Amino acid sequence: MPAKPLDLAKARVLISNDDGVHAPGLKLLERVMRPIAREVWVVVPETEQSAASHSLTLRQPLRVRRVSRRRYAVDGTPTDCVLLAVNHVMKDCPPDIILSGINRGGNIGEDVTYSGTVAAAMEATLLGFPAIALSLMTEDRHAPRWKTAERWTADVVGRLAAATWPTNVMINVNFPDVEARAVTGVEITRQGRRKIGGALVQGTDPRGEPYFWIGSQRVEPGLPAGHGPRRGETGRRLGHAPVARPHPRAVSQAAEGGFPVNPDSRKIRLVLQLRRGGVTDTRVLAAMERVPREIFVPEPFRDRAYDNLALPIGHHQTVSQPIVVAQMTQALEVGERMKVLEIGTGSGYQAAILSKLCRRLYSIERHRPLLAEAEKRFARLKLTNITTRVGDGTLGWPEQVPFERIVVTAAAVDVPPVLVGQLTVGGVMVVPVGDDDDQRLVRVLRTEYGIETEDLNPVRFVPLVPGVASD
Ligand code: SAH
């Protein structure tokens, strides 16, 4: 299904979703479909059912509440809704097509196995109806670009209705997180696969009890903003979900020259590597492109400056891999008005990147000769908003507290409490935590009640050593 193209003007459309009866994405989809379809029916969950996947309610009764004409709410899952719609609510007037959405948040790669939005469309497909799941990618979940979905829904649904697609295939549409006018077209892709990040947020509730919160999947590495599933990794592994996505011009621009083009092809290659590694923040990418890394590495390694490698800088220390610098900087979410503290100046490379993104950077290094070199580089590059000192970074910089952001570029055994104490409430620290064999980047958010930590990717840093070095 559909064996033949569907005339939407004559079609009875059923809408379901997983965000529930009050969801803005539902209202949007109804608003777009009403003028172009003969009839629009809505059967949706009473409450949000995100990540309910294809679950059925078998151990408790279900109730169907008539909200208004052709609008119903069910106290169950998206799958329950579609089943009840087809077998009960619309028994005598079956739908011609079933739409699910528009979900707040994308459903690509592995998402489709968790998603209630996709499950509703999957259930519809299994019941023999043509079905389309619709989702809006959101990098910032507080500000979904509904206008983009609103502008493109009729177009995409119209094209799909006018086409035919194989029996038992459902369509999964993802609108990109770009302005409506930045969308350049519609692209059919295959179902992709991606690794779900270890974004487990741990915190303490106001009563002092610990809790875990399964964090956002949108921040994981390997998925550039607005990109559809990565192709060619698993091909048709799930086999049921071709994916149509409007193609964001913004994405192709970013990859091909949305930020200033540098003639050095090695630099361009590195920036593309960073994007593939999940660094999507264009401010971070632009800073990485603007700061000449060759100045920060010793002469024998200059021709490797744009390889994605950690390189020795003397005194048994290293300048971190570009991808790690970029990931740490991205995780720090530095604003241009912020005061930032770095522990471990080293070559000064990370400091130079940060200085492009913040108001003022303070940086501490325990090796005096390393700092002297770094300061020369800052002067040469005219980076005037960096203040440095030789000292023991584990003590922070008490004269300058508080800091809105702190980055530690050497591995601590645990999140350093002294440094947490120098953060503003709402401030963020990024710090590698662990021993030589097992280190993770940790993002620490200082809250009114203490801290919340989020584990990011595994890393390998030189250790944070207390005291000032004697050289
Ligand atoms: N950010 C640096 C990375 C340098 S490696 C760069 O971009 O090049 C880590 C640095 O942390 C080393 O230079 C090391 O000397 C320094 N370091 C380790 N323990 C420290 C401490 N307690 N206080 C200050 N610096 C420290």
Q: Report the oligomer.
A: single chain
Helix content: 25-40%
Q: List the strand order in the largest sheet.
A: 3-4-2-1-5-6-7-11-8
User: Radius of gyration in whole Å, from Cα?
Assistant: 26 Å
Judged by helices, strands and strand pairing, the structural class is: alpha/beta
| Ligand types | S-adenosyl-L-homocysteine
Q: What is the mean pLDDT?
A: 85
Give the name of the CATH superfamily of the largest domain.
Survival protein SurE-like phosphatase/nucleotidase
CATH topology of the largest domain: Stationary-phase Survival Protein Sure Homolog, Chain: A
Tell me, what's the shape?
Answer: elongated
Q: Give the class-level CATH name of the largest domain.
A: Alpha Beta
How many structural units, i.e. domains? 2
Structure description:
- There is one protein chain.
- The protein has 471 residues and is of the alpha/beta class.
- The protein folds into 2 domains: 8-199 and 225-252, Survival protein SurE-like phosphatase/nucleotidase (Stationary-phase Survival Protein Sure Homolog, Chain: A, 3-Layer(aba) Sandwich), CATH 3.40.1210; 265-459, 3-Layer(aba) Sandwich (Rossmann fold).
- The chain is built from 12 helices and 20 strands.
- It has helices at 24-33, 78-89, 111-114, 116-126, 146-162, 249-256, 265-276, 282-290, 322-332, 349-355, 368-380, 417-420; strands at residues 12-16, 39-45, 64-68, 71-74, 97-104, 131-136, 171-175, 183-189, 200-204, 210-214, 243-248, 311-314, 317-319, 339-343, 360-365, 386-390, 403-408, 423-434, 439-446, 451-459.
- The chain has a 9-stranded mixed beta sheet with strand order 3-4-2-1-5-6-7-11-8, with helices on both faces. Strands 10-9-20-19-18-17-14-15-16 form a 9-stranded mixed beta sheet.
- Strand 1, helix 1 (24-33) and strand 2 (39-45) form a beta-alpha-beta unit.
- Helix 1 packs across helix 5 (146-162) and helix 2 packs parallel to helix 4 (116-126).
- The longest helix has 17 residues, at 146-162.
- The termini are far apart.
- It binds S-adenosyl-L-homocysteine.
- Residues 317-320, 343-344, 346-347, 349-350, 364-367, 370, 392-394, 409-410, 462, 464-466 line the site of S-adenosyl-L-homocysteine.
